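Re: weekly structure request thread

Next one in the queue (225 aa):
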Amino acid sequence: MRKLYIDTANLDDIKRINSFGIIKGVTTNPSLIAKEPKQNFDALIEELAEFCDESSLSLSVEVFASEPEEMYKQAKEIHTKLKSIIDPDLLRIKIPIGLEELSVIKRLSDEGIDVNCTCCFTEQQMQLAALSGAKYVSLFYSRLRDTSGNPKEVLNRTRDFLYENNLLCEIIAGSIRSQGDVSDAWHNGCDIVTCSTKIIEGMTQHPKTDESVAGFLKDFNNWIK
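Done, posted below.
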C-alpha cells in the first residue's frame, strides 16, 4: 500500500488536507517548525500530537541536537513527553543518518521506539539505518537529483535490499518538488511520499481539467437558456 504524508508543522494545513481523507501521516523537521510563528517547541509538537492522535495520523518529530548522545537524550525526552498524548504506535522520532548516529538508532529501536532515519541520499545510508533497527528511512529525493544522483535507482535498490534481508522497514521519499516526483517515487519502490501542502494541492490540478469543466458549464448554460 502506497501512502501519502504531509510535510509541514502548520496545524491548519494539516487539518485542511486531512479533511479530504488522503493522508496517513505528518512529517516535521526543525526547518518546518521554524517557519511557524515563534512559540514554545513543546507546546507546538504537543498540539500536533494531539490532532494526529485524534485523526489516527502518524507523526514524525526530529531531534535538533547535534551530538549523538544528546540526540539520544532528546529523542527519549520527546518520546516520553508525547507518548501520553499520541498512541506510541503512531509516533516516530527522526534521527539523521551518520556513523555514530547508528548507535542512537539501535538504542532507541531496542527500547521499542520507532525511528525514522532522515537526511539519506544513498542506498548504503538507508541500508545501514535499516540494519540498525530504523522502521523508516527517508530519502531526500529532489536534493539527490540536484547532485546528479538517481533517486529512482536508489529507491529500487534499497527496496530490493530490504526484501532480501526480511527487514521490516518502510521507505519514505521527501524533498518532493513536483507532482511527477510523487508518482515516480511511488512507482520505484517507495512506500510513503511526504510532501508540502502546495504539492498536494497541485496533484488535483491540470489546465485541461479547468478547461473541460468550464466547457461543460458553458454548453449546459447555453442549452438551458
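The chain is about 50% helix and 15% strand. Residues 3-224 form a domain with the TIM Barrel fold (CATH 3.20.20.70).
Next request, please.
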